Amino acid sequence: MRAELDRTISILQGERPAPQAGAGYPQDSADAGSTLSEADRTEAVLHSARGQRDEVAAALTRIDENTYGRCTDCGGEIPEGRLDARPDAARCVGCQAKHARRR
Ligand SMILES: [Zn+2]
């Protein structure tokens, strides 16, 4: 799962125009507009892929520490059904809901 996300991220990073790419490009205003929104979209996907990778990495750390399957907030066991749906789940359903509301 982590390797998959790493691949997605590197593909997206390859697609993303380098920050200094504008220097060598003819600056057509209409073109620049579409390039920007495309870059924004890529950036958004990249951001969520990175966030997901961090969660998977954290889950792998918890496996190493033998705390995998335990809620990071209350220490309670995360139901297996939840782990099937979200193998990288860090919290039990109740704590996740609280966590989501805090955001
Ligand atoms: Zn909990």
If you had to describe this structure to a student in words, what would you say it looks like?
- The protein has 103 residues and is mainly alpha-helical.
- Helix content is 64%, strand content 0%.
- α1 runs antiparallel to α2.
- The longest helix is centred in the middle third of the chain and has 36 residues, at 29-64.
- Zinc ion is lined by residues 71, 73-74, 76, 91-92, 94-95.
Give the gist of this structure.
By secondary structure, this protein is mainly alpha-helical.
What is the H/E order? Answer: HHHH
Radius of gyration: 19 Å
Bound molecules: zinc ion
User: How much beta, percentage-wise?
Assistant: under 5%
For the terminal residues, how far apart are their CA atoms? 26 Å
Overall shape: it is: elongated
Number of helices: 4
Approximately how much helix is present in the residues? Answer: 55-70%
Main sheet attributes: strand count, strand direction, barrel closure: none
Number of strands: 0
Which parts are unreliable, with pLDDT below 50 for 5 consecutive residues or more? Answer: none
Average pLDDT score? 82
Class based on secondary structure composition and strand pairing: mainly alpha
